[in-house]
Amino acid sequence: MKTLSFAWRYLWSRPLGAALNVLLLSLGLASITFLLLVGYQVSRAFDRDLAGIDVVVGAKGSPMQLILSGVLHLDVPPGNVPLKAVQALAQNPLVASVIPISLGDNLQGFRIVGTSHTYISHYGATLAQGRLWDAPLQVVVGATAAKTLGLAMGNTFAGAHGLGAGGHAHGDSLYTVVGILAPSGSVLDRLILTDTASVWTVHADHAVHAAHDDHDKGDDGDAEDQPVADDAREITLALISYKTPLAAMSFPRYVNSQTEMQAAAPAVEISRLLNMLGLGTEVLRAFAGVLLLTAALSVFIALWSAVRERRGDLALLRMLGAPPSKVAALLLCEALWLGLLSAVAGLALGQAFAAMLAWALQLDHSLLIGGMVWPAALWLVPAMAVVVSLGAALLPAWGAYRVSVLELLQSR
């Protein structure tokens, strides 16, 4: 304990140098902490939201766009597909379940999703209040959406056209909140869920009013302005689970070649996305490595200079009976203090950077990044801090260990 106390005093006997070393180490460790946190939370979000979904079927276009829009709700969908075609897929012997997804409206940026009760049970979500919908224009609100929007049981609201805030409001079709989900940590937390028929009802009413407006202006309108017939209903996409893993070999090929739709495998597309993002991650990791090497060099120079400046103190310690190992331990403890202080500061800064990213990009409404989490990999940060600081102190400590009392006194 005395050695640790002496080392602490020695460390802050040069406050500017100590603060600089702590800052350099902290910045490198904060960069690594930030990368670990973001990587962990993004991977967790992907694994959580893609779990149990073997393939996504939707309109022809970009497969990755289909995954991002239909599963993670981060993009706009490529288009709609006929309901009849999706119902035909549900009869396929390889298909275990089909979850319909209909998009098109939002409330202040939170998507209103037409779907079935299976969508909620798929993620194991439970109700905190109320019940599930049993009629069109009734909604169940995710925990994050309800908290942010201030929605409560019995509230009514009008959805806005489009998937982003600022669209035209469907003021003639009001939704009623009949349930609020408990936090599940899944994509459902940031969605407003309703029956698929609600989406058709809202847009059919919109088409009728548009047709009436055209008629009042002397325009009878065309067929596209009329309410959609039941046999021409469309949905945005479908989330499909297989009965057997072997279906992955033939089902997507069947959809892509025998229908007007496309099938996208979430695992494949997310792997492609992570590979595309890998280059930027490697650059940031290399930058963090450079900061750590610079910090290690700074610590080495500071401790080496400390040995030369404190030769009188070291001589006094040796004359008072301190063995060479005690003198070397004093320098190692000083480096250990540097590592521990830097680890605490680096972890705090890394968490703060992740929270700032979530706030700046509103990622708490998408991938739920920014919360205080501690993945197992984060223990690497304090371990690296200790290894770097002690590694930089080894040579100065060895030099202090080998210097004799006579040499120390002669240098005075």
Automatic annotation (TrEMBL):
Predominant cellular place of this UniProt entry's protein: membrane
Topology with respect to the bilayer: Multi-pass membrane protein
Domain MacB-like periplasmic core: residue ranges: 19-197
Keywords for this protein: Cell membrane, Membrane, Transmembrane, Transmembrane helix
Recorded family membership: Belongs to the ABC-4 integral membrane protein family.
Limits of the ABC3 transporter permease C-terminal domain: 286-404
Localization annotation: Cell membrane
Any one GO molecular-function label of the UniProt entry: transmembrane transporter activity
Name this polypeptide is given: Multidrug ABC transporter substrate-binding protein
Any one GO CC term of the record: plasma membrane
InterPro entries for this protein: ABC3_permease_C (IPR003838), MacB_PCD (IPR025857), Macrolide_Exporter_MacB (IPR050250)
Stored PANTHER family: ABC TRANSPORTER PERMEASE YTRF, MEMBRANE COMPONENT OF TRANSPORTER-RELATED
Organism: Rhodoferax lacus
